[in-house]
Amino acid sequence: MLPKIYIVGYGNPGRQDDALGIRLAEKVHDWSLSNGIECIETDTNYQLNIEDADNISDKDLVIFADASKENIENCVFTEIQPNPKVEFTMHHVSPSFILHLCREIYDNYPHSYLMHIKGYEWEFMGEMTKKAHENLDKAFEHLKKFIIAYLSKQNIKPYNRKKIVLPHKN
Questions:
Q1: 117: exposed, middle or buried (C-beta count within 10 Å: 0-12, 13-18, 19+)?
Q2: What pLDDT shows up at residue 167?
Q3: Which domains does the chain have, with CATH numbers?
């Protein structure tokens, strides 16, 4: 059985660099389609919601992607674990809390990571900064390598141009 990979990018595309998570999910979507990798599902949203626990419940690998104001160079890719601590912020619940809900409701949760991408400007404008675009490209290259390595461990060759199709749920 092929792995189910889910990439969810979140943020506000109308606030400059806050769109980084969404843009990463879009890039992965385009890349996976152009290479016939149909075991990757992508989603975008302004924020994570408790309903996302259901969205990830049947996945093998989940990557959450978000813009970061943290003091990082360009991007950081970290493994995350379920955490019952409710960390409501201005615009979302944490990925760790989503994993916790998934574990509590479904008695299981997927192997998960968070891609933090360094942003610089957060004004109400649609265009990301040049440096944010550069960080997005670096994050995308890192994530592509990670996905290729993950698929290789599953004996799936992502660049064979053969369509990889997951069985449909009944």
A1: buried
A2: 41
A3: 5-153 (3.40.50.1450)
